[in-house]
Amino acid sequence: MRVNCSSSSACTANSSEGELPVGLEVHGNLELVFTVVSAVMMGLLMFSLGCSVEFRKLWAHIRRPWGIAVGLLCQFGLMPLTAYLLAISFSLKPAQAIAVLVMGCCPGGTISNIFTFWVEGDMDLSITMTTCSTVAALGMMPLCLYLYTLSWNLEQNLTIPYQNIGITLVCLTIPVAFGIYVNYRWPKQSKIILQIGAIVGGVLLLVVAVAGVVLAKGSWNSDITLLTISFIFPLIGHVTGFLLALLTHQSWQRCRTISLETGAQNIQMCVTMLQLSFTAKQLVQMLSFPLAYGLFQLLDGFLIVAAYKMYKRRLKNEHRKKDTGCAEGCHKKKSTSLKETGAFLELELKQPFSVKRLILRTGVSQVVARG
């Protein structure tokens, strides 16, 4: 197999061979509207998430990139290896195996930034990891694909979508940079923008999930094996990413962030690469996997967020019960002390008068008054 590292414009011949089958045809106007709306919403979302990033913390991650290094190891070490092992273990067809491997070699997607915000992860690390993995994909994607397909003896060239990677970088860095600036100049207003961005993020995820199914519903097939892989693949990414971060002594906040970054792949980049590299007939067997992976990726993300919210609520209830029990215990202890003091005074007042007892009674009375 040879990895074609030319630009996307030089490889249009691969994507235009033959007419698209009925299942893959979409209306141009609907697809254009979906693309424009998604791009605008994604830009607004990244701008709002950028409002949660502090330049000082961001610079600290860049100066001491331990978290970034662990994330890149997960992204281009664990994920391609997992994809290769899944393709071999399930004995996939060549076209399906390539789709799984391409997905494993893609950089992290921006969807991880949304879920990281919802689980109170390290947003500075999340956005930095997404940006760094996208930059690293310029070299790591062709390298990983070349290494893992040496034993497959494939003749089909794979086109790395450099233009798509560049567009992703621009759409990611420019809105985030504006968000960081707004957070620096107007910190109060940035909190409001951040709350609005969380709502926009939820709407965007629903729109992408529904529109992705509607626009390419004809590419779905009944291959249970491929659906099973698309279900377990992101789960393996989340679990292995979390464990590796834990083994490298990252904080719990960073562990959650790296876990979400590892399991969330750039679906659009995978689809673009497949479209540039294979014919329409071959795409029928391939496109069902990235679509299914994207949906299960959303489902896994929502489940992780729900589990984290339940965990936080349980901790809050336990702290509340502990505080209530402590308050009741302190109140009982104080009441017992007052009763004992009152009994002591009553006993002393019954004794014969003396100057020493008068001083003692006066002192105890002052203590009671203060209490």
From TrEMBL:
Membrane topology: Multi-pass membrane protein
Cellular localisation: Membrane
Keywords of this entry: Glycoprotein, Ion transport, Lipid transport, Membrane, Sodium, Sodium transport, Symport, Transmembrane, Transmembrane helix, Transport
Transmembrane segments: 32-55, 67-92, 98-118, 125-148, 160-184, 196-218, 224-247, 290-311
A Pfam entry, by short name: SBF
GO molecular function: bile acid:sodium symporter activity
This protein's GO CC annotations: membrane
UniProt-recorded name of the protein: Solute carrier family 10 member 6 isoform X4
Natural source organism: Zalophus californianus
Gene: SLC10A6
